[in-house]
Amino acid sequence: MAVNFPPPRCTLSVQNLTLFLDEKVLVDNISFDVHEGEKVCLIGASGSGKSLTARAINGTLAPYIDVAGDVIVNGVSVAQQPVLARRAEARVATVFQDTFSALNPLMSVGKQLSLSTNVHSRDELLALLKQMQLKDAESLLSRLPSELSGGQRQRLCIAFGLLSGANLLVADEPTTALDVLSQQQVIKVLRQCCDDHACSHSEYLHASPLSLLFITHDISVAAQLCDRAIVMQDGKIVEQGALQDLLSHPQHPYTQRLVKAAHQVFSDTKLPQKQAVNA
Ligand SMILES: Nc1ncnc2c1ncn2[C@@H]1O[C@H](COP(=O)(O)OP(=O)(O)OP(=O)(O)O)[C@@H](O)[C@H]1O
């Protein structure tokens, strides 16, 4: 007898979102959903509106930007709500390209983790860092953020984000400033957090499957991580669908250019498969 599973829950629903500055439309009537456990990328050129969309989702939009439409996180309408006004279930974990803006430069990593989270004992902190694939965890705890590599800092920021208990992680260009090996480590951690629910083995992290909105201008990085892609150009969504479909049959001229450029980088015309990250 066929078993009917319930459809996955919608973690994030962006509905006809428009962002204006005075008369100028910066993000133009965009709509998309992210379901529980999904890894979705928002791809577009610089200035296409990706970061503004991320800020509307996580509640950090500048107050002078006008908002129309809605953003619904775990069933709660939050489009007009700044982050500090949000109920716990509508909080969104966010990691940015600039890790220094998220970390206190004058406080050791261990102290920051224990002050801003419920993880206090040294053993618990060490276990957490291990989950983030951070080696030499003992020594990391006593270091300042400036004494970590960019990739280590980015994985630390992912840990901070997830420790908030959020089930939605928005990662805004988290690998852009990193070298290729550090990029791979960050992608591997994000994959584990989403796919294997590795983080949910810890009582300190989210209990339900994590959904990811991964923001990038690089479709070849997105291809290593995400299932679905939303392509933005000039504030509008021009195409969305399964990432592998977009890679093999891009419809919109902008997506076609993105895919062609990515194929030129990988001269054998094969983009990296998601599994390659596990190698
Ligand atoms: N706080 C702001 N005030 C005024 N205009 C803004 C603000 N933030 C972004 N913009 C404008 O909105 C448009 C979209 O910017 P956004 O930062 O969302 O682009 P992006 O796709 O994230 O680009 P990048 O990949 O370079 O980060 C741009 O024209 C930008 O100049």
| Sequence of strands across the biggest β-sheet | 6-7-8-3-9-10
Q: What's the helical proportion of residues?
A: 25-40%
The geometry reads as globular
- How widely separated are the two ends? 38 Å
CATH superfamily: P-loop containing nucleotide triphosphate hydrolases
Radius of gyration: 19 Å
So how many helices?
9
Question: Can you describe this structure in just a few lines?
Answer:
The chain has 279 residues and is an alpha/beta fold. It is built from nine helices and ten strands.
Structure description:
This is Peptide/nickel transport system ATP-binding protein. The protein has 279 residues and is an alpha/beta fold. The chain has helices spanning 50-58, 109-116, 122-131, 137-141, 150-163, 180-196, 219-222, 243-248, 253-265, and strands spanning 10-21, 24-35, 39-44, 66-73, 76-77, 93-96, 168-172, 211-216, 228-233, 236-242. It has a 6-stranded mixed sheet. It has a 4-stranded antiparallel sheet with strand order 2-1-4-5, with helices on one face. The longest helix has 17 residues, at 180-196.
